Amino acid sequence: MKKFTNPFVALRSRNFRIYWLGMNISLIGGWMQSITIPWLTLKMTSDPFLVSLVAALQFAPALFLSLFAGAFIDRHNKKHVMLATQSAHCIIALLYFLLFHFGRLDYATILILSLCSGITQSVDSPARQTIIYELLDDKSHLTNAIAVNSMSFNIARIIGPAIAGVVIATVGMKICFLINFISFFAVLLALTLVRVSPDPMPPSRENIWLSIKDGIAYILRTPILVYELAILLVFDTFIPNYNVTISAYTKFMLSDFTDSTYGYLMSFLGVGAFFGALFVALTSHRPSVNTTRAMPLLSAVCLIMCGTHGSFAWCAFWITICGFGFVATAATLNSIIQINTNPQYRGRVMSVHSLIFQGTTPFGALLVGYVCRTFGANWGLYFSGAMVIILLTVVFYRLKI
To answer: Tell me: the pLDDT tens digits for 74-99?
Structure first.
């Protein structure tokens, strides 16, 4: 019996290969900016709660826009949607650079730009999730494509923060914003070159509210979707608040931190995440529900262990394993949801996925930021891990498939 598959089989598709290469370059710049913003905010304010407010504003639009975005995406050419959203992200990166360069980037401006980024991301995220299916010549390679996409995301998560750490320490934060702006031209070129296959089902022309209602009803009558989305709800609320927890841990728990330390820790997170994506790619012929049960608990335990010792090496070790568990969960869960979704509902289902994946962040980030501010950075890590263990135990007991 075949146990492993070619981890890069999806790259046989020309369109996906071009898109993947362009997105790889862009993601490195994106991660450089993602690392720079919370560190810049923490240096400005010395308050982890205010850092969490930036994250909350960035992801809050998903709460209000994701469901509409899903219905919109099911009606429109996903390539054109992505060209628009990626162009908007590019402009936001340019604004960060110019405002920083001319000394006009303050905390209030960061909040405004984070909100603008969140509005754009609310449409971009479900579009990125669903366009993968249309880029594949062989649709059976969907799980592998999701895993390969996740691998590229996490290669960037290794390279981007490491480069950002060096750039911040040597030439300054504003160059990270400039590099991100330039990197967007790679994905815009890739999107221009790909030829997207038409949807197998004609787009719906019903009222958008009825379309959203129909999509939610479809999820509720599909037990596997309810189960996996419930896991995502718990897992994503408390685990990936690294911009708050790890930045606070670096500044307040590590006695020998430098401006590059936070970037290096996030690179270790990316190393683990890369191997988590590789694990999913190697087993992509049989995505397992058991993976989405075990790996979130592994990540939760690792977060708790991170907070038990104020050592860079200790945190780097546990955050690496946490990254493995996080991406193994996220990529497998994404695959299971898409495989079990009718194509005509894919945009709406993935918009609910994006709603949870992004929309829970404001609550999780603010809650964890408050715990870090009140009780200390290590307690933010303890709290996050403990809540995942407790709430997932309830989900596993109450929702059985």
So the answer is: 777 889 999 999 999 999 999 999 99
pTM: 0.74
CB 237, CB 386: distance < 8 Å:
no
Domains of the chain, by residue range, sit at 9-398
Secondary structure (DSSP) of 131-145: HHHHH-SSGGGHHHH
Does domain 9-398 sit in CATH 1.10.10.10?
no
Task: Tell me the C-alpha distance between 300 and 295, whole Å.
Answer: 9
CB contact at 8 A, 377 and 308: no
Distance (Å, rounded) from C-alpha 251 to C-alpha 224? 41
The residue among 63, 389, 392, 60 whose CA lies nearest residue 228 is 392
pLDDT band, residue 1 (cuts 50/70/90): very low
Confidence band, pLDDT 50/70/90 cuts, at residue 284: low
The 10 Å CB-count burial string (b at 16+, else e) for 86-117 is: bebbbebbbbbbebbeeeebeeeebbebbbbb
Distance CA 314, CA 265 (A): 11
> What is the rounded distance in angstroms from the CA atom of residue 135 to the CA atom of residue 18?
10
Average pLDDT over residues 330-340: 86
Burial class (CB in 10 A: 0-12, 13-18, 19+), 284: buried
Pair of tokens at residue 175: 């160059």
Q: Please state, in angstroms and rounded to a whole number, the distance separating the CA atoms of residues 327 and 134.
A: 23
165 class by beta-carbon count within 10 Å (0-12 exposed, 13-18 middle, 19+ buried): buried
3-class secondary-structure state, position 22: helix
